Amino acid sequence: MVNQNLKAPEGPPSDVEEIKERSNYLRGTLAEVMLDRLSAGIPDDDNRLMKHHGSYLQDNRDLRNERQKQKLEPAYQFMLRVRMPGGVARADQWLVMDDLAQKYGNGTLKLTTRQTFQMHGILKWNMKKTIQEIHASMLDTIAACGDVNRNVMSTSNPFQSDFHAEVYEWSKKLSDYLLPRTRAYHEIWLDEEKVAGTPETEEVEPMYGKLYLPRKFKIGIAVPPSNDIDVFSQDLGFIAVIENNKLTGFNVAIGGGMGMSHGDKATYPQLAKVIGFCKTDQILEVAEKIITIQRDYGNRSVRKNARFKYTVDRLGLENVKAELENRLGWNLEEALPFHFDHNGDRYGWVEGIQGKWHYTLFVEGGRIADFEQYKLMTGLREIAKVHNGEFRLTANQNLIIANVTNEEKEKVNELLKQYGLLVGSHISALRRSSMACVALPTCGLAMAEAERYLPVLIDKIEEIVDENALRNEEITIRMTGCPNGCARHALGEIGFIGKAPGKYNMYLGAAFDGSRLSKMYRENIGEEEILNELRVLLPRYAKEREEGEHFGDFVIRTGVIGATSDGTNFHE
Ligand code: SRM
Ligand code: SF4
Question: Looking at the whole model, is its pTM more than 0.90?
Fold first, then answer.
């Protein structure tokens, strides 16, 4: 199977490869260590495996110093991520998530940039109960993290048309088809008995193999003209092709990704590139074969260079395409033209097919909680109690109350009004176009604040926005607490990456439709410098922009930052 002309990088396997090898298909000693009451944590090796079960051990970083002083172990807790292709949850599933967050989590839910729920703050002793209750609601956390295919994204509103619904169905099929086959999850969390007489070694992972992938793998399907799922940020992106109101297939884009490390030129965000077209029912096969190419040729020695984007760049796009066609036994057709016009969400009520209504509401930083003046979580709970349709999580951390009937609409609207959830002019277009990753206090990799700080920074930027009559101007603004890019900062027209507490690298110039990366504009600056830069740039934009020109395009046209010829590797 392995092509002699293509090579995986040489070098000793990384520690994670060894852990997977020893793990007996992702079991490790998880079943035992979760029962150990001496510590609220688990050993590192098991934590690596835990990711494949949709969870990470974290500690509350706000309490770290204090606990260290008191000679206590860190305030260990688990983050749990649900697998929910296309971000669709029924109203009763919403209520289960809400209930679990109150009972076992920190009383909040995070709507993630990949359209799913995360819960934070779950204690070790409550993990099994939480996973079992999620399972009972017909959801699971399998493969939500780890070196496997992750939550499959699909353009947010599947009910706008029949083909949106069809695309959503394909995201579910992809997600199921690409699941690991090990029963480890079912045994550890759901108490499934091992089948008698089946030696563990007979268990096979037909696609992944014993070592799974060299790194996480991400797939998303976009339906033009909306690029809400940022298709070019995916390891494998599918762009739906609609002809005569029918889904005929997908353009296939490979090799995107957002992560990098400060000061390490061998790491960088990259845009996925379109390599051809496949028919609708070929999508599973294309995804499977691409994944096996990454399985065979990805870097298993250096994890920082293990994502598929580096495999594609190292082997060459044409070689990867040729290898794909070789494995498929047929050739992709030529890609068909497509056009995106935005990567954000469209807010408010929209009428969809079959006379059903959908309301997209803004969720700042994706955090569902009850705030002092704003009872978001309670409001949504009340809506879930009367709503018979779905909740759809968007790739911009927002929420669609979907499939509302004519009869339900008034009641839902009343509740939206009662709890102050209607999206109105009190929320500037800049804020509505914002995204921030979790960062502190739960993310162990955060170098600076993001979710807790971006709203405060936007309060101040809004003053400049208002002075320049830009309140209704959509400018995408994204902040991450480190260069891993969880809020896809490199595709924000204004982007910030945390460097140190209160310090950020500032990026400008990504395209409004998500087709061009941003470029570093200022390094290691704090709030005052950020505001000073915007006090110059935003008035210039207000005065000098051309008709309909987006901010990201403006800063390039006017030379605020230089452009590269093809827009790729534009980031640093
Ligand atoms: Fe992410 C690691 C949160 C979307 C790139 N990400 C993490 C961890 C698990 C930190 C860790 O490894 O210890 C964060 C948990 C924080 C916490 O306390 O919850 C974390 N990532 C998130 C979420 C929750 C951000 C959010 O605020 O919504 C998103 C969950 C998505 C999901 O539901 O599956 C999230 N992460 C992303 C995205 C965006 C996307 O996928 O569209 C990216 C950039 C795209 C990409 O993968 O290239 C992203 N996360 C990373 C990376 C960098 C990977 C790399 O290529 O080097 C890491 C670090 C790692 O894997 O080592 C990371
Ligand atoms: Fe954590 Fe960095 Fe991801 Fe933000 S971008 S959630 S700080 S890993």
Answer: yes
